[in-house]
Amino acid sequence: MSGDVAVLGAGMHPWGKWGRGFVTYGRIAARAALDDAGLGWPEVGSVVGAATVRGGYPGYVAGSAFARGLGWQGARVASVYAACASGAQAVGTARAQILAGLAEVVLVVGADAAPKGFFAPAGGERPDDPDWLRFRVLGATNPAYFGLYARRRMALYGDTTEDFALVKVKNAAAGAFNENARYRKPVTAGEVAASAVVADPLRLLDICATSDGAAALVLCSMEFARRRGVRDPVRVRAVSTVTPTFPRTVLDLPDIGTDSAVAVAPSPRSFRASIVAAAYEEAGIGPEDLSLAEVYDLSTAMELEWYEDLGLCAPGGGARLVRDGTTALGGRVPVNASGGLASFGEAVPAQAIAQVCEVTWQLRGRSGERQVPGARVGVTANQGLFGHGAAVVVVR
Prior knowledge:
Layout lengths: L4 E12 L5 H16 L8 E5 L5 H5 L1 H9 L5 E5 L5 H14 L5 E8 L17 H7 L5 H16 L3 H15 L13 H6 L2 E3 L2 E2 L8 E9 L1 H6 L6 E7 L30 H13 L8 E4 L4 H10 L8 H6 L16 H5 L3 H17 L12 E7 L5 E7 L1
Parallel strand pairs: 2-3, 2-4, 9-10
Antiparallel strand pairs: 1-7, 1-8, 4-7, 5-6, 8-11, 10-11
């Protein structure tokens, strides 16, 4: 059996701070995806919702929250939570349902209404919760984590704050062409350097914001696409959701300690690199086949590390790629042609779905001024908390 499923529709609600509930955003994105697919809501056999912890009980059962928002019609539902990897895991769940013959058409939706400022742990006293502990014991907010990663790259590879700034400049230039982005203004390296220090060495413009937003996909079997006259659809070919291997020797919050490597040698491949490698293996491709990639740029320094995890260069080579324009629009392998989280901000359960939307539009040749010429293969990559990660390979 082929592992391909067709992407029949893609839709989004623009990112920003809109002051509405997450179901409203998700419903708008879902309607846009259904319109793009040329399908009516009653034709959907299953809804997979990427869950949010910020919507109360409806957020935890996002699949049924979106189905109710669209109007009950009997579809099966599933709700998926994997922190920042939730959206890609939802895509994986939908794909599995289609390949198992449980549904021909599946609607995947993720939406969030984020708080102002950085994310905080859920309320209450929970000393057995590593995420609660990292805030209460270490005071390690997400920006502090990003700053530690940046310092590590500077120590290991000689990356500079100027290298980090170039990532923001690149992504802002792409985001300026994206009607769904929250920030649509190009910036200069000087403006990045002049912005306030948040977590040394990172400045305000090195770190993504928190946003409201939503994204949705209509996935279907290849047979259904053919019956609808779609002969060459964009296809999801692989979804990787692998976990880390023991021992983990690189600190990864919310964990506040690493494993011992005394008895077992560390894997030669990092956790994030293993996520992408598993997707490549399932899809039968390698980094040399990529037309573009969408990665999880929580900070500018983290994007440089994803270049290495994607296999675009050896460890420590990320800064060189951004310096020579390899990953910019017009470069050999554009990364975050959408503008990335630098231009959108975090709407946690929606962002991995939004990445697949972007690759879909690129492979259809419908991305306007940010179009990657001749795009045929794209990959998305995300990491969530507690060993969650996901990569999606999309082809045409």
